[in-house]
Amino acid sequence: MKNKILNIKNLSKSYGAFKVTDEITIDLHFDEIHALIGPNGAGKSTLIKQIVGSVKHDIGSIILDQEDITDLTDVERAKIGISRTFQVSSIIPQFSAIDNIVLSLLDKSSKTFQLFKSIKNNKDLYSNAKKILKEIELSEKSDISASDLSHGDRRKLEVGLALAMDPKVFLFDEPMAGLDESGTKMMINLFKKIKTNSPILLIEHDMDAVFALADRVSVINYGKIVATGTVDEIRKNELVRDVYLGYEI
Amino acid sequence: MIIEKVFNKWILLFLFTIPVFGFVFEEPYYITLTTKVVILGIAGIGLNLALGYCGLISFGHAAFFGLGGYVTGILSFHALNSELMFSWPFVSSGSSDMLVIWPIVILSSAFLALIIGLLSLRTTGVYFIMITLAFAQMLYFFAISWPNYGGEDGLSIYMRNSLPIINTMDPLTFYFICLFWLLVVIFISAKLINSSFGMAFQAIKQNEERVKSVGIETFKVKLLVFVISGTITGLAGSLYTDLNRFISPSVLNWQMSGEIMIFVILGGIARLYGPIVGAAFFIVIEQTLGGYTENWQFWLGLILILEILYVRTGILSLFEKKFKYEK
User: Fold this and answer.
1) Burial environment of residue A224 by CB neighbours within 10 A (0 to 12, 13 to 18, 19 or more)
2) Cβ within 8 Å, pair A143-B327
3) Is the pLDDT of residue B326 over 50?
4) Which of A106, A114, A116 sits opposite B216 (nearest CB)?
């Protein structure tokens, strides 16, 4: 328990007779990237939604840094340190890239309810936002409206929004979907760097990226965790090969 | 091409000069019309904060407009008739002093907006529209059935409320009082829109789920916007009662909510000066077409349809450049 920052026990969610997540038990250690893989519709994104609190669980518990957060709202969970990206890019389309990042910095800096001071004059917020844009290699596009960014740049911006929150854990839902080779490389390097501060629960279909990054891998199928282990263990697991990886990897 | 900011300055110039022309050429009618534009513009700016900038489609802002109007009317009615209003917890016979009335209007409108907001903001979309509408209609039917203050016939106040030294009965003076409030409301709105709070509520309009995910309590943000919005609209209602020296339940009706919404849509949603242009356009149409036909609303509806189809973002969008979030 001591080295676990996030501990999920028996988390379940059903829609009628259909069990989307079925007594899922999974944890995330300090300093690690734990990848969650599985076929489409296996329940990966629903699990993320349950962890962030946007989908209510039926049973189970979620412990973050030894604090039971099971009954907290989505906003409360974000405030105490769960930061996420969405499977489909979710940004503020009419804001520039830098304003998106500044928005993400507001709560941490207790500036949300500052009513009359111009935000553009807040040099601290904007210089912090610039640092994050540099990390995700979007500095040159800082003033471009988010809706005008390419798909790949939007994925980077989403990761930037998560970074800005300086959370206890990151939940990344397919952050590399749609990225080109250099974008994926940049993300891999970035994730390796940030995991020492905040571990990452990573959902990803790009197996090269998963195998390059993950310290541990869990495989989910029909809402159940069918295997957990190191990359090598998962690669060799017959059941995992049957349900997801196939035999060419 | 003329940019919107320049156009906004022209709007202010017109607002300062037109009533002066009315005064010089002894046409007080034009002063009254422009006063109406300014007051309805204030109401529209109030709604625009909620609807235009935060995406809260309130169809019940008549509640705040009417409340502001009735608070003004009732306080004034008691003061002018030297009639006791209440005797507990203290004795009051109302007031006809604007400096007393305005804070009471502001506080009561804010309180009503807080109550309505706390209940209605738990819903979204069409449910939010219906709840806000229902609240306003409740107040409308209450006002109709309240004989103490005129019921359906409304309440007349024989003298405009007063200010120290200033003669508020003079149309031009009263106009500049209203213009002062318009400038205050524009100033406050501009400050809010460009603040970090403004960034949060404008983001909520575009993607509330994302805003929640970065730890911002969207319910509190929306509630505060709704309260500020309702308060501004309530203040407009107070000025409207003083302009007409009359208040009736019609200002609480859903048609009033619809009209305030039309000012916002006509002028341009999420454009600071949009509601002023919208209110001016509405009144010009009312006055010109109303002279030819009783069914002028039909033509207004047609104009509104054409505008939404072809100039979706309002008259001010013709002057392009957006006010918000520009370096």
Assistant:
1) middle
2) yes
3) no
4) A106
User: What would the two tokens of residue B39 be?
Assistant: 């007051």
pTM, two decimals, is 0.92
First to last CA, chain A: 33
Residue of B nearest to A160 (CA): B214
The per-residue pLDDT for range B83-141, each reduced to its tens digit, is 888 888 888 888 999 999 999 999 999 999 999 999 999 999 999 999 999 999 999 99
Residue A224: strand pairing partners: A221
Other CB atoms within 10 Å distance of the CB of residue B36: 22
What is the CATH T-level fold of the domain A1-81+170-249, as seen in this structure? Answer: Rossmann fold (3.40.50)
Domain chopping of chain A, boundaries: 1-81+170-249, 91-166
Contact across the interface for B195 and A95, Cβ inside 8 Å: no
Determine the distance in angstroms separating the CA of A63 from the nearest CA of chain B, rounded to an integer: 18
The verdict on B326 touching A (C-beta cutoff 8 Å) is no
Please tell me the total number of residues recorded for chain B in this structure.
Answer: 327
CB contacts < 8 A (A, B): 104
Q: Choose the most confident range, by mean pLDDT, from A178-192, B170-184, B303-317.
A: B170-184
Q: Could you report the per-residue pLDDT of A71-86, keeping only the tens digit for each?
A: 999 999 999 999 999 9
Q: What are phi and psi of B185, to 5 degrees?
A: -65, -40
- Joined tokens for residue B75: 């306080």
DSSP, res B270: T
- Which tokens sit at B22? 């009315």
- Torsion sign over Cα B162, B253, B277, B107: positive
Q: How many CB atoms lie within 10 A of CB B232?
A: 30
Interface predicted TM-score (ipTM): 0.90
